[in-house]
Amino acid sequence: MAKAKGPQGKRVTLKMAKNSIRVSFDGKRRLDLSKMGITTFPKCILELADVEELDLSRNMLKKIPDTIEKFQNLLWLDLHSNQLDELPAAIGTLQNLTFLNLCNNKLTTESLPEELNLLKNLRTLNLGLNLLDSVPTTLGALKELINVGLFDNALTIIPNVVKNLPKLEKLNVKRNPLKELEKEEEYEDPIKRIETLYLVEQKDLCSSCLKVCQSERDELIKLGDITPSSSKKLSFPLLLTPNSSAKDNQEEWRVR
Fold first, then answer.
1. What whole-number distance in Å separates Cα of residue 152 and Cα of residue 182?
2. Which of 80, 129, 133, 130 minimizes the C-alpha distance to 107?
3. Over the chain, what is the mean pLDDT?
4. Burial of residue 189, with CB atoms counted within 10 A of its CB: 0-12 exposed, 13-18 middle, 19 or more buried
5. How would you label 72-93 residue by residue, b for 16+ Cβ within 10 Å and e otherwise?
6. Residue 112 sits in a domain of what CATH number?
7. Which of helix, strand or coil describes residue 187?
8. Which segments constitute the Disease resistance R13L4/SHOC-2-like LRR domain (predicted)?
9. Does residue 81 fall inside a structural domain?
């Protein structure tokens, strides 16, 4: 009985690949094979290994072969939205890479090769939407990194060697169960709950608010000499509070 075969995907020929090369405004040649339903790395594109950019995103690739090392001119490699669950160690040979997008795959911390730390010129690394439960500290060796995407994983901590990268400008760690974020939320919560209480000095009130306050204070002084009956409860509907009658003016006097 023959074994059931998985999806074969679209077969890419050398002619198709050549017709898929685009030249960017700065003269770089991009081989764009995105959204083509490819399930296996096309061997024919090894004959076009002198391109500077390679886009294999939004396909069904499960593996990148060691032959990726043939693309020594690559500056830009986009593999996002595939089904990759591992990377070859040979990816570390692409030392001219400045951009590497691995977002939306099935990569785990263990499946990231240590050789990633050889990509010394890498400026953008996107590992978002994967299955990482920790960040390899070897990423701390990538001193040129400017943008790092680690969003939508299972990370509980971000190593200081990553947070303290010398050129890092953007670190996206959204939607991870980070302990440090939980602590920040716990700390911020009481502040948020008392955020609506404002203490102001007389000099910080606008003239109209000050008049109302003084008027109410005078009324309170007068009422202080009167003993109210037990059956009636005093009501001060015009008593000024920052969140009631002064609401429209609070931007003028709020303590900043």
1. 16
2. 130
3. 81
4. exposed
5. eebbbbbbbbbebebbbebbbb
6. 3.80.10.10
7. helix
8. 29-127
9. yes
Rounded alpha-carbon distances, angstroms, from residue 85 to 34, 35, 88, 101, 130: 19, 19, 10, 14, 9
3-class SS at 45? Answer: helix
Nearest CA among 109, 108, 98, 56 for reference residue 80:
56
The widest CA-to-CA distance across the chain, in whole angstroms, is 103
The pLDDT tens digits of the residues spanning 124-167 come to 999 999 999 999 888 999 999 999 999 999 999 999 999 999 99
Which backbone phi and psi does 147 adopt, to 5 degrees?
Answer: -125, 130
Q: What is the pLDDT of residues 44-98, one digit of tens each?
A: 999 999 999 999 999 999 999 999 999 999 999 999 999 999 999 999 999 999 9
Q: Is residue 74 in some structural domain?
A: yes
pTM: 0.69
At residue 212 the predicted structure's pLDDT band, cuts being 50, 70 and 90, is low
Give the structural domain span for 167: 33-172
For residue 4, how many other CB atoms are within 10 A of its CB? 5
Q: What's the pLDDT tens digit per position in 165-203?
A: 999 999 999 999 998 755 554 444 444 433 333 444 555
Q: Write down the H helix ranges in 82-178.
A: 160-163
> Considering the domain boundaries, does residue 204 fall inside one?
no
